Structure formats: structure tokens, C-alpha cells
Amino acid sequence: MPTISSGISIALQAVLTQSQVLEITEHNIANASTPGYRRQSAVLVTDTPTSINGADHLLGAGQRGGGVTIEKIQRFNLSFFDGRYRSVSAEAKNWESQSEILSQLEATLAENTDDGLIPKLDQFWAGWQSLSNDPTNTSLRTILLDDASALATAFNRRATQITQLRSDLNLTVGGQVEEINSLAGQVAQLNGEISRVLSVGEQPNDLMDKRDLALDRLAELTGAVSSEQKNGEMMVSIGGHVLVVGHDSFKLETRANAVDTSIKDVYWQGGQQLIPTTGELKGTLEVRDSVLTGQLSGLNTLSSGLITQVNSIHTTGFGLNNATGLNFFSGTNAASISVNPALDAASIATSSAAGQEGNNVIALQIAGLKSVKGMSAGTATLNEFYNAQITQLGVTTQRAANNDYQHGLVSKALGDQRESVVGVSLDEEAANMAKAQKAYQAAARVLTAYDELLDLVINNMGLVGR
Amino acid sequence: MRITNLMMTNNAIQNMAENLEKVSALQSKIASNKKFQVPSEDPVHASTSLNLRSQLQTLESYSDTAALTENWMTATDNAFDQLEQIAVRANDLILSGLNDTLSGSERAQTLGAEMQELIAETVEIGNTSVNGQYIFSGYQVNQKAFSLTDAAAPLLDYAGNPFTPKVANYLGDTGVMQRSLGPDQSVALNVRGDQAILGFLQNLITASNALTQNNVHNTGNPLTDPLTLESSLGNLKTSIDTLDQYRTSNGARLRQVTSASNFLESVKLETQSLLSENEDINLAESIALLANQQTTYEAVLEVSQRAISALSLFDYLR
User: pLDDT value at position A49?
Assistant: First the structure.
């Protein structure tokens, strides 16, 4: 039998449910710009109906609705989009980090300004050429010494900058490894909490958001892939090696490289080396171990070529003071090259024999080195050799920037695709809010109607004939 | 596609950032007047630019060398010009001295004295310096080329009195300096004083001695004949020929240097225009592009402010 109280309970249930729907909408609105947030919505279902006995016969007249209730709070997510987005964003981050470091390097080298190494080389050759015009001129000799030490300093500066950048990148790698470890720890911990909540049949929506955010970042760092287990736990792996399984995570660590102890490689704790194939870590390692190493060794080849070529001629010559056998440059590579400290203006050798001030044979020979193809197995001059190296760096930087841009676009497109499913649309929420509000108001009106009924029953019934 | 507010905001931010980046790139192009700021913006042209700059610097060096070489050789030519004037005067003096109507004292005191001045002048000219360097001394550019010293044995003058004749010394060496005017082109810079001038100077001294000694005509004595005024005339002619020969060769090399210098100048201009073509922007075009980009940027801003501050349904719900 329907009773007033059961009617009140349906209305009350409706009021409570709609206020919960409103709360869920509120939660969506509040988190509209929270990173990693997936929108949620209440799935409303009808509550268990009750059978009604017919008035005329004892057969059931049908079932009377029991009102509304929330079946579950749905979290919008498509793991398919997550996987695609993560694999692309890893590659985008790989190129982004390469592009950032390389353009930083390029800017500090400033090779196509007057501060470049090639203009310094040119000035050095020009210094010898002018000295050959007037070997007795002491001021020209002093200028040449200045130009030469500017050239040596330019080499030193580049070597220092590249070495500094490499050790900075060591720090970056260390930081990235720490971040991976901490994220892996978070994922393992969240796995535990999520599986516990799931096991009691509830939906840990916000915990899953946090875990997905950590997985996004892990993918950006290393291209880590994840797969969901039956119990809701995520298994995460990098390049086939498990990073997180269940409530446990494996740690990474850095160890000094066996050959070059100044750089640090990434290892699984107590295991083999991790060579990432994508992600920020890969970008950082690629620049540090391949591009910077190449640039530094090119600089060293160039400087040692310069030192040998100039010295081998200079030692055979005689200075104004008849000094002979002196090296022009001392040092062996880009970091150590300097003008021989024992060399003063008068000892710069320009003459091929002692006591001939006007003899400029040696000066001419050294000035002529600028067009001697003594590098790359006799195919390039010193200038051409370095020009090729700058161009190489330019091309590498350009490719990194282009790839960064293109992968960035794809990553953004896939991110948008995911966002279009999981993101919060305020208009939608406004509509939902209005819907819930109206439903709440209507249910409240029904309550009022019951209130009037009760008032009628309690206060106005049984007064006939009074 | 379902569009969320976050997507709108992110798109707006990305569009603004991309456009602003383009505006900034165009601005730095216009400000620096260069097509690229770092090699990665255009590796091919950047490499060409580096090359052209190197070439330009090299050409400047060669150009400087050519200018200095021209100075030196012009000074050499001037010296020869003066020496030839001296030679003409010396020739006149000898011819006057051969005139039999002159007395010994006239020869010695008028003609001989002037001849000695010519000798001093010749030494002076032989010691010409350019930029502090003696041009006839070979490698010994800090050393005067010629000096006059007293001879060991005195001679007797027309009156039978002894006098000390002068001896010409060459103090330079046999060095010939080279100047490079290009990677494979070099030119000999200096004329050696011992080859070009020393003979002339010695002949002037012999003639001066003959005038002072009043030793005019050949007598058929092979010991004394080379020292007579008559022989001097012939010897002077020979040494003038030598002067001429060296002057001509210097002139030929000077022409070579001048033409090399002109060539270097024109190559320099050409290289400069290549460099400018390679890396300089077309200002009018860039400014037009910038104006266009700015318009686009303004449009993006306008659209973005609508997208971000966009009205939402909330504004209309009562």
C-alpha cells in the first residue's frame, strides 16, 4: 500500500540525489583546469520498485517506481587515447629537450658574429700577412700576439663552455633519474590504494587521475609504457624493463662512465644500463654523449692541427732578436692552447735565416697556412674544417627544432583528442547544474505537497461537527 | 568534436605564442638586417656567409699588401728617376771635362767638386727609406744600403798634392723579399742596391778621381787607361743602362701590383655584394611581412580574448 511516508521518502531521495549530482557538477567545475583531471558524471538509475496490489483483484497491478538513486560516479577516460598520447609526447619531449640545449649552445658559441672562432682565425692569418709586409715593425708583432692570444682564448672559451654544458647535463640527468624514481614510487603507492578501493567495489576516480598524471610525466621522461592489470593496478615498463609492478617499483641510479668518468650513465639499481629510446632523458643523453662530444673533439682536432701546422714552420724561423726553435703555440688541445709564454714580440719568427730583418719567408709561409688543406686527410683548410663543424651543429639544431615543432603539433592534437573526451566543458556543467537544480526544486515542491497532505491529515481531519 | 574550455584556452595560448614568436623573429631580422641570427636558422646560407667573410678578410689582407707594395715600388721608381737626372748631369760634367781647353785646376775644382756632390746625392738616394725601411738593402732593411769611406791609399791631384779618394760600400745583402698578392701570386718587392746602383756609384767615383787627378785621355797603358775620364764616359753609359734595366723591371712589377690591386678591389666589391645578397634581408619586404604578421597577431589577440573570456552558459542562467 502506498503511504504518505513512502512518498516522502521518494521525494527526499530525489532531493538528496539531485544535490549529490549538483556536488559532482561542482567538483567538475572546481577542477576545470586541474592538470590530469578527468570529468566525472553521476549515472542515475531508478531505485528498486515495489509491487502494488490491485484494488479489484489480488493480482499485482504493476510495480511502483521507487524514485531515483546514483548507481555510480563515472570517470571519463579512454586508455587507448592515453597510450597514443604518451608515445607521441615522449618523442616530442625528446626533441624539445635536444632543441633547447642545442639552441642554448648555439647562442653561447655565437659563431656567426664577430665573436666567432672563424673571424678570430681570419684575424690571426691577417696578422701574419701584415707582419710579412713589414717584419721589423714591432707594433705589428704586438698586434699579432694579441690576435693569437684572442684566438687561443676563443678556443679555451669554447672548450670550457662545452665541458661545462656537459657537466650541467650530468646534473639534469641526475634530476631526471630522481624524478623517475619518485614518480615510480608514487605510481606503486597509488596502485596499492586504487586496488584496495576497487576491491570493495568503489571507483577511486581522483586517485586514478593522479596516477594517470604521473604516468603522463613518466612517458615524457623516458617513454615508459603502462598496462592495466585486472585488479586495476598499472604495470609500467621502460624499454621492456619493468619499472612498476603492483605495489613495488624498481629504482634507477647514475654511475660514472667507465671510459669518461666526467659523465654519468643511467643504470637499473644493481642491474644493467638503461639506454632510453625516447623521452627527455634520451634527448639529454643524446646531446651530451653524441653532439657535444663531437663538437669538443672537432674543436680539439682543429686546435691541435693549428698548433702543429704553425709550430712546425715557426720553429724553423728566426725572430728579430735571432731567437729560433721557439714554438708559437703551446698546449695540445682546445682547452690548453695558448700563445707560448716564452714568446715576446721580437722573438716571433718571420725570417728564414738569422740576421735578416727584412726576410719574411716564414711569415709568408704561416700566413699561407690559411689556404693549406691540412685537415680531414688533406681535403679541408682549418677554416673550412670549422665551417663544416658549425654547419653540422646548425643542421642538427635545425632538425631538432623542426622535429620538436612537428612532434609538438602531433602531441597537441592527440592531447586535444583526449581532452575532448575527458575535459570539463563549463557550458555542459552549467546545463547539468540547471538540470539538477530544476529537478531538486521539483522534488522539493513534491515534499511541500506531502507536507500539505500531512497538515491536512493531522490538523484538519476529524473536525466535522465540532 | 566536443570542445572543452581548457582546449580553448590552450589553443588561444598556443596561437598567441606562435604568432608572437613570428613577430619577434621578424623584428630581430629587421633590427639586425640579417636573414638569420644563428646558423640553425639557415645552415646553408650561414656556412656561405662564414666563407664569404673569410674571403673578404683575406682579400683585405692582400689588398693592404698590394697598397704597401705599391708605395715601396713607387718610391723605388722615384729613386731611379732622381738617379737618372744625376746620370745626365754626370754625363755633362764628363763631357765638359774631356774638353781640352780646360786646365787641370778647373777640372778638379769646378767639375770634380760638383761630381763629389753628385756622389753624395747618389748615396743619399741609395739610402732612400719607406716606412723606416731602407729599400735598396736587401733583407737588411734596418741598415743603410750605401756608405762612403776613405780609400787606403791616397792619390795625387792635378797639382801633385795627395788626396784621399772615396770608396763606395754596399752594406745590404742579397735578399730579395717577396710579397704575396694572392694565394698563388707573389711578387719580388725590392731592387738590390748592389746590382742596380753600386756600379753607377763606383763609376761616379772613378770619374771624380779622374777629374781631380786631371787624368783625361787614354794613353794606351792598360794599367792607367781604365781610370781615365775617357773610359769613365763609356763605363757611365753602361751603368746607366743597368739603372734603366732595373727601373724598367721595377716598373713592370709595379704595373703587375697595380693591376692585382685593382683586381682585388673589384673582387672585394663582388664578394661584399654576394655576402649582402646571402645574408641581408630585403628591408621593404620584411617590413611588409612584419606589418602583416602584426595584423595577424592583433586578430589572434582579438579572437583569443573572446575564446578565453568567452561568455558561457553561466552568464545566461537565472
Answer: 85
